[in-house]
Amino acid sequence: MAEFLDEWAVNSDILRQLCRAESTLDIFTKLGADHIPFELHEPVAPRQVYCTIGNYRSQLVESAVDADNGRNFDDKRDAALAGIETRRREGVPYVCLKGAACVSGPYETLSVDAGMSTLDWETEIGVVMGRAAHNVDVAHALDYVAGYCVVNDITLRERVFRQDVPTLGTDWLQSKSRRGWLPTGPWLVPAWEIDDPATLRPWLRLNGDLMQDGVASDMIFSIAEQIAYLSTHTPLQPGDLICTGTPAGIGTHYGRYLRAGDVVQAGVHGLGSQWVLCTD
Question: Is 62 inside a domain boundary?
Answer without folding.
Answer: no
